[in-house]
Amino acid sequence: MRTPMRAWYAGPDRYRVDILGTAGEHDVYRLPDGEYTWDYGDNTLTELIGDPGVRLPRGGDLLPPELARRILGAAQGDPVSALPGRNVAGVAASGLRLVPADPDTTVGRVDVWADPVTGVAVRVELTARGQDAPILVTEFRQLEQTTPVVEAPRPALGSGFGVASAPDVADTLGAFSQVPLPARLAGRPVTSSDFGGVQGAALYGSGLASFAVIAVPRTVANAASDAAGKAGAVQVKLATGSVVQLSITPLSLGIVRSSVSRRSYLLAGTVTPAVLKSVADELSRLRRSGP
Question: For the chain, N or C: smaller number of CB within 10 Å?
C-alpha cells in the first residue's frame, strides 16, 4: 500500500504535513500557537487546544527524517555498518545499516540513507527479523532543502470550523490512571512513565526491544479483544487470566484480562510475541491494590 504525502518543515513548532488519499486529503498544521487539521472530505478545519500527553501515530511520523530520528535515537549503541550510496530525490545519499543487538526485538534491520552534507534522512527501509524484503519503505520523491513558509490554513467560504481539546489521558482512564505498574516486567525495567501524571501507563525496555503497558477498563479491553479477533488474533489461556495476541509485523499487540484482580491491560511493542506473553502472565498475577 502506498501513501503519498507532502511536507513543509520550518522547525519543530512550524510545519505542515498533507496526507493524500483516494477519498480526499487530510492536512496537519503545527504552529507556535497550536495545531490545526484540515479535512478536505468533510470541508472542515479543526483547531486543537492544548498539548496531548500522548497521541496515536500518524502519517507524518513515517516521513524519512522523523522515522530515522526516532529509530536511531531509540537504538543508540546498536551496531551500524556502511551501505552503498544511492541517489534519492536528486541527493547523492550515504547509507548505513542498523542491526538491533537485542534478540527479543521483531526488527531485523533498519537501512537509512541521508544527505551527507545536511544529515537529512531521505530514505528508510525497515525489515522484520527473519525476512529478506523490507516491510516498510519511506522515501522522498522530490526534495527542496530550504526553509518554507508555513502559515495557518485559510479555509474557503462555507467550510466548517471546530475546536477540540487535547484529550487528558488521566481523565479518559479515570481510576485506572492511578493503577500502579511494576518496576520491571519480563526482566525489563520501566524506562518512561511520563504520561501526564498517569501511573497506569509506562514504557519498558530499551532500544527497539521495548513495549508499552497501559491499564484500561474491562469494557475497553473487551472492545479491543473483539476488534483484534476480527483481525486474526489468538487467545491464550494463562494460569490467572487470558491474553489476546495479534502480530502486525513488526508490532506485537496484546490485551490482558486478569482473573485475580479483574484488571485489564493493553500491550504494544516491537518485541516478540513470547515476550508479550511473559508480560501478560506477570500482569495477570498482580493482586489488586488501589483503585
Answer: N
